[in-house]
Design a protein that fits this description.
CATH topology of the largest domain: Immunoglobulin-like
Number of domains: 4
Structural class: mainly beta
Number of helices: 1
Strand content: over 45%
Oligomer: single chain
Strand order of the largest sheet: 14-12-16-17-10-36-19-26-21-24
Largest sheet: 10 strands, mixed
Shape: elongated
Low-confidence stretches: 1-6, 9-26
Mean pLDDT: 91
Length: 472
């Protein structure tokens, strides 16, 4: 939540506050008294409440008007340091109601209601202050226990997945209550939110909202929506949760957390992900129910198994590695060893090989018309940059091109940026969907023994996933 500067009582002339139209005559001898002020016994920061005030006149008839300020004070002395939460300009005496907005930045400690009345020409200002009852100031702050994106993968004719819990917390003042509702920012006929209106109490465990998905009648594809969990009384207090439904085989990014259920012998969950040769998929696996002994296989783009790991049945996370031998779209296959069944949870991560990270290569003594090759491994969504520094003995002219994973060559002559020191930079080569080895070809060697070229290869891989994938 944002915090803003608090409004305080100010020592401005009351005549300025009221304006000339309310200025009394010089002979007025009215004596206004701040008689009473009352408000709720507890208030929430960001909310609007109402206070009741009473102002009497103990002197001559009031000519003009007055300003009444309702304040919240941390002590029983009403002064200029107190926070103004409401005010009214009027010439009406007696009781009235004042709207009060509880500002952000107000400490969540006990306060008292206060009233300050100001009128030009008041005969006795000592009774222009009044202290009311105590009031507890609470913060409410809605927060999801885990706001990371959720992906649910189902087979087109498979069963309806189990409800997915989303825990909503109130991280505000202990014992304060946040009332919230859930809104689909993009309507999703396949989604039902169980308990879309609920509450959470500060200092206590959060309440669960269940997401129920029914994919009956949906064709294979990807469906998305965003759920907004919002404080019902303060619209700027909310958190968004992205939800994706995949009808067909699931796709994940290393970094995502995977949750699934194996029904028994023959039941296999398959999840796709992108890998480059030498990349290690780090998996931390635990059994969440049943007697399942999780068996994970890494299947390459041609359907061959690169690696297999088996885990004991354990409620604790156990770490192992699976290594990809090639590049492309891989499949992580999950099953129960020897027909065991139950739920599982997998935390994933990736460890990239050297050629998929920034590195430097040096070339010298190449023959005439022989090209130097600087490979780099890149995942879809990554970018490539190069810095090529030929020495003074390099014959030239320098020619640069990139061989793409599919085998075609891309000429880089139009992308070269030559710096004053002779270094050539290639920036901003975006990789949308290719996966594998990108080879920088460097031409221009004349066969001289002292020719040298230094190349900095700068691949930037896409960020690892931060979502949750639920597999049918």
């Amino acid at each position: 939540m944002s915090r803003r500067r608090l409004p305080h009582l100010t020592a401005v002339a009351v005549g300025v506050l009221l304006g000339g139209a309310l200025a009394p005559s010089a002979t007025a001898a009215h004596d206004l008294r701040a008689t009473t002020v009352n408000g709720p016994g507890q208030v929430y920061v960001g909310s609007t409440v109402h206070a009741t005030i009473k102002i009497d006149n103990l002197g001559d008839p009031l000519i003009g008007g007055y300003v009444a300020q309702v304040v919240l004070s941390e002590d029983v002395v009403i002064d200029a340091s107190d926070t103004v939460v409401g005010s009214v300009t009027s010439d009406v005496l007696g009781s009235q109601t004042v709207g009060c907005t509880i500002p952000f930045g107000l400490p969540d400690v006990p306060h008292v209601w206060g009233l300050h009345v100001m009128a030009p020409g008041d005969d006795d200002v000592t009774n222009n202050w009044n202290v009311g009852p105590f009031v507890n100031v609470f913060y409410v702050d809605l927060a999801l226990d885990d706001p990371s994106p959720i992906t649910v993968a189902v087979n087109a004719f498979g069963p309806v997945p189990d409800p997915i819990p989303v825990t909503v917390n109130n991280v505000g003042t202990p014992s304060s209550i946040v009332v919230f509702d859930v809104e689909e920012l993009t309507p999703a006929d396949w989604l039902m939110v169980d308990a879309p209106n609920s509450f959470a109490v500060g200092g206590f465990p959060g309440n669960d909202v269940f997401l129920r998905i029914d994919h009956a009648g949906l064709v294979p594809g990807v469906y998305t929506t965003t759920l907004r969990f919002r404080n019902s009384y303060y619209m700027d207090d909310y958190e968004d949760l992205d939800l994706t439904l995949v009808v067909g085989r699931a796709v994940f990014k290393p970094g995502d957390k995977i949750f699934g259920q194996i029904a028994g012998a023959g039941d296999i969950d398959e999840l796709e992900f992108d890998a480059v040769a030498g990349m290690k998929l780090v998996v931390r696996v635990r059994s969440s129910s049943g007697d399942i002994v999780p068996k994970l296989s890494l299947v390459d783009p041609d359907g061959y198994v690169d690696d297999v790991v088996v885990f004991k049945h354990s409620k604790q996370l156990v770490k192992k590695l699976l290594k990809a031998k090639g590049s492309g779209r891989y499949v992580l296959r999950v099953e129960g060893k020897k027909g065991t069944k139950g739920g599982y949870a997998i935390k994933t991560h990736r460890k990239m090989p050297k050629s998929a990270n920034a590195h430097t290569r040096k070339f010298k003594g190449l023959g005439y018309e022989e090209a130097a090759v600087a490979p780099a491994l890149l995942l879809p969504g990554g970018t490539l940059e190069y810095a090529i520094a030929p020495n003074s003995k390099f014959e030239g002219p320098l020619g640069l091109s990139v061989k793409l994973p599919a085998g075609s060559l891309m000429d880089l002559s139009g992308a070269m940026d030559v710096l004053p020191n002779g270094t050539v930079k290639i920036e901003g080569l975006d990789n949308e969907d290719a996966c594998g080895c990108f080879e920088l070809w460097i031409d221009g060697f004349g066969g001289g023994p002292k020719e040298k070229v230094k190349v900095m290869v700068l691949p930037t891989q896409p960020q690892q996933g931060k979502g949750k994938v639920y597999v049918d």
